[in-house]
Amino acid sequence: MRGKSILLIVGGGIAAYKSLELVRALAARGVKTRAILTKAGAEFVTPLSLSALTGNKIYFDLFSLTDEAEMGHVQLSRSADLVVVAPATADLMAKMANGLANDLASTALLATDKNVLMAPAMNVRMWESASVKRNRAQLEKDGVLFVGPGDGEMACGEFGPGRMAEPMEIVAAIERVLSVAGPLAGLTALVTAGPTREPVDPVRFLANHSSGKQGYAIAEALMRVGAATTLISGPVSIAPPEGVKLQRVTTAREMLAACEAALPADVLVMAAAVSDWRPDIIANSKIKKSVDRVVPLIKLMENPDILATIAQGPKRPRLVIGFAAETDDVVDNAVAKRARKGADWIIANDVSGDVMGGDRNRVHIIDQNGREDWPDMTKSEVGARLAARIAETLKGAA
Ligand code: CTP
């Protein structure tokens, strides 16, 4: 959703303070926000704090000549990709359900041609009142989208539904709404990331330096262009991307089983650094050095090749993409790997430097037409460019 813009309407309610956090989370994702603060909203958050976080002036007054000269209320509501109302009070819901337009917020809601996402917040009795239920049903019929409210103890001390959704839930809902229009809408993506861990005994394992950053960035980018994305991740310490279905696994065999269970998918991106081997016996208790000081020999056996299994299996995704982590002869090895595994594309990278764990990557894309060299860029940029290339290919073939 980087580069998108949102018109945020902040209604009057104690939950308005969470809108500040929402703006901050959106800014961190590269989303620009303009905000309308209702009169009641201004009782709870100050225009100054909202303006500092959005980096834009705040709009309140329908009849402000300076505002209208700069950006009229109709344009304000249409220049954004999405209108978000948080908190959506009973009053704002009632106004929109009935087409009232007696202040800037309600006028913008009436004038917009974009999706409207409401995050209601009110006392549980108000939420359950007949009129709010009626207004909500009308709004849903009119195509207004909702996130929350959640259950819990409210600022007024009562318990039940009425609490505004948490900022990160609203961000996830925004992401979903915005991505529906993306080029991969309606398609599914399966991405693997991170290392696998192969236990030796209860305290030791075999693993590698993979941080999961590149795979996570690819999953996030595919989700942003509209794909329903499942991410199967080995043990890593980074936060999962919002809006992606995450499944954690430990070993290569678990990763294979999770991938097979997640099929069918339109595209598979195997970014995981799967361990090629595992100890053939996992000791039930810790292997001790103390007894006779003999260095133990760990016999290894080969793990299944997940990429090859899926690429040559009955549920093969339309587009199968593998990685080739190489330290020597990067491109030649990658070309051979593409043929050996049956992948459509191989993304080759030289991992002899500090790529593993770092934030940047320099890759070559090997496909049936040859190779494409991408310049050094951030892993997020690789993700975004790859998602665009995938979208072009899948849509072109559709
Ligand atoms: N891969 C896999 N299952 C394995 C090993 C690797 O699915 N057991 C996938 C990786 O996710 C990656 C691709 O295969 O997409 C290539 O992985 P890489 O480690 O570069 O190659 P290897 O198969 O290990 O071959 P080699 O040891 O010869 O480099």
Structure at a glance:
The protein is built from 14 helices and 22 strands. Strand 7 (150-153) and strand 8 form a beta hairpin.
Any idea how many domains?
2
Distance between the termini: 24 Å
Q: From the alpha-carbon coordinates, what is the Rg to the nearest angstrom? A: 26 Å
Ligand inventory reads: cytidine-5'-triphosphate
CATH superfamily of the largest domain: CoaB-like
Largest beta sheet: strand ordering? 13-12-9-14-17-18-20-21
Mean pLDDT: 91
Low-pLDDT sequence parts: none
Strand content: 15-25%
CATH class division of the largest domain: Alpha Beta
CATH architecture assignment of the largest domain: 3-Layer(aba) Sandwich
Structural class: alpha/beta
What does the overall shape look like?
A: elongated
Query: The CATH topology of the largest domain is what?
Result: Rossmann fold
Quickly count the helices. Answer: 14
Task: Write the topology of this structure.
Elements: E1 5-10, H1 16-28, E2 32-37, H2 47-54, E3 58-59, H3 65-70, H4 73-78, E4 82-88, H5 90-98, H6 104-111, E5 115-120, H7 124-127, H8 130-141, E6 145-146, E7 150-153, E8 159-163, H9 167-179, E9 188-193, E10 198-201, E11 204-206, H10 213-224, E12 228-233, E13 245-248, H11 252-262, E14 267-270, E15 277-279, E16 300-302, H12 306-311, E17 319-326, H13 330-341, E18 345-350, E19 360-361, E20 363-367, E21 370-373, E22 377-378, H14 379-397
Parallel strand pairs: 1-2, 1-4, 2-3, 4-5, 5-6, 9-12, 9-14, 12-13, 14-17, 17-18
Antiparallel strand pairs: 7-8, 10-11, 15-16, 18-20, 19-22, 20-21
Helix pairs in contact: 1-2, 1-9, 5-8, 10-14
The protein binds cytidine-5'-triphosphate.
